[in-house]
Amino acid sequence: MEDKHMLMIPGPTPVPEKVLLAMAKHPIGHRSSDFSKIIAEINDGLKWLHQTKNEVLSLNVSGTGAMEASIINFVSPGDRVLVGVNGKFGDRWAQICEVFGLNTTRITAEWGQPLDTEEFRTHLEGDTNKEIKAVIITHSETSTGVLNDLETINKYIKDHGTALSIVDAVTSLGAYNIPIDDLDLDVVASGSQKGYMIPPGLGFICVSDRAWQAYETCKFPRFYMDLGKYKKANLKASTPFTPPVNLMYGLQTALQMMQRESLEGIFARHLRLTKATRAAVQALGLKLFAADDCASTAVTAIEPSPLSAEDIRKIMSSKYNIALAGGQDHLKGKIFRIGHLGFVSDRDVLTGIACLESTLTELGHKVQPQTGVKAAAAVMV
Q1: What's the whole-model pTM score?
Q2: Where along the chain is substrate bound (predicted)?
Q3: Nearest 5°: phi and psi at 4?
Q4: 269: annotated binding-site residue?
Q5: Is the pLDDT at 365 greater than 90, yes or no?
């Protein structure tokens, strides 16, 4: 059947009808007073979502673009940085740092395992000459469904005294409680196609006063990605360059929907969906790739061996029109991932689990009818 496609991947995520309709409106001039009012409302909404008094900057980029901007605006060529690497995206940030000529120290963990917070403490406490300028952390490692211990690592960064925290919150912002001001995080980057419930195309960066001080001495050349331009424009409810006007319409509507749900409601829903998904997977006799104590509230990774992850994804797509994410790099074909962030409800998860049950049965995996659905529903009561 046409137009029945269902996204259960960690991005892009489903988009509410209200947001789609808002984006269908005719664009207006991005320098007009009417659009300035929209920007002002969006800026207030972004501060609410980020739990901060600082400016949250909107760039016409993906999450990767937001992370790159977060790096080149606050450190200089040759600076020493620590980068946590326990998945595809931690590795990507290390590669970005290396491309820009930073003295990059990788703190690694096996994919599917959380970063060891003590390794960060050791490196930071041993840096008596204060050579480490930034610590870059992927909070929710999308490739494996692991949530890293940002709070503990950030405490060690603050104890260091001078290093900045640069956080990839692309799949955790809007899915997990990150009180940016209370945690005293310096730079937090995210992307529109995740918890924001709008299509790809916007990246967001929240910047602390301490990070702005580092910006003043940063020596990387930049123009379009110069965050100082965005801050100056933000304060005037404007943008330094042409924004995606219709995406901004959608963002305005999505933020209004999120505010009606409340932060507490959003975080509770994501936690409930995570627990329901994981309970169902275990009831179906499949192996969870990440442990309960480090489970992402955005995506659950599953190791279905001896079944083929790609066979499962193929049937879910062709027969039920449900898109699941596959494994990346050396995990391709070995795991699949179920996204449950953004515009996702209890009904969506129950539907996905029911179809997964049927798929497993078709592949010869013995499972009692409704086993997964019952396990998920029990969590949702």
Answers
A1: 0.97
A2: 337
A3: -115, 15
A4: no
A5: yes
